[in-house]
């Protein structure tokens, strides 16, 4: 029995994204070719063009997938914390530290910005700002965070964490840079905490 069309489309997309992710994560965007994606997935170039337009479109799809996985991991981290403030700090720090992971480092923080431009302009960034804003509003309502403009704080924290991750990913000493970035970032966040 033949699979429904929607299922076949979803399978083709998933195969191409997996092949793209493998190639981008191992040889990088510049080093990967259309044949890497289609040959690895057992599909034609036509399928790639149909679903993603081109190599850049495939990279965007891979980044969306990795970003969604990062979000799930970050929610798990913040949920495990003993209180909302600690969860907020742990989640922000974990995002920065993910820049040490080879696949995330290469795809999200090296090739992504090189190919797609400023990370703060990516479509997924709006979701990050919204999530941070929600957390900030809760922390302010709890009396744990200073009375600061929510969107302004969300954008500043997002910018600081993104730039810290980019700094780590492009550093000659990612481990050392990560320690410095996390230490500085924790101090910045503590400056937003109310003293009761």
From TrEMBL:
Keywords: DNA-binding. Pfam families: TetR_C_41, TetR_N. Coiled coil: none annotated. Residues 10-70 form the HTH tetR-type domain. Transmembrane segments: none annotated. Residues 33-52 bind DNA. PANTHER family: HTH-TYPE TRANSCRIPTIONAL REGULATOR RUTR, HTH-TYPE TRANSCRIPTIONAL REGULATOR UIDR. This is TetR/AcrR family transcriptional regulator.
């Amino acid at each position: 029995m033949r699979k429904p069309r929607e299922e076949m489309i979803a399978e083709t997309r998933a195969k191409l994204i997996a092949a793209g992710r493998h190639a981008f994560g191992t040889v990088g965007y510049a080093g990967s070719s259309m044949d890497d994606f289609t040959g690895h997935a057992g599909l034609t170039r036509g399928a790639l063009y149909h679903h993603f337009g081109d190599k850049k479109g495939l990279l965007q799809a891979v980044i969306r997938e990795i970003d969604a996985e990062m979000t799930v991991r970050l929610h798990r981290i913040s949920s495990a914390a003993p209180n909302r403030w600690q969860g907020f700090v742990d989640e922000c720090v974990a995002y920065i530290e993910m820049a040490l992971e080879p696949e995330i480092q290469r795809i999200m923080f090296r090739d992504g910005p090189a190919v797609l431009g400023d990370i703060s302009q990516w479509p997924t960034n709006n979701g990050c700002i919204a999530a941070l804003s929600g957390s900030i509003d809760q922390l302010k309502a709890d009396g744990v965070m200073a009375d600061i403009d929510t969107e302004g704080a969300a954008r500043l924290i997002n910018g600081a964490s993104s730039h810290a991750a980019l700094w780590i990913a492009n550093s000659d000493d990612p481990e050392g840079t990560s320690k410095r970035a996390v230490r500085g970032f924790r101090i910045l966040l503590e400056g937003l905490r109310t003293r009761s």
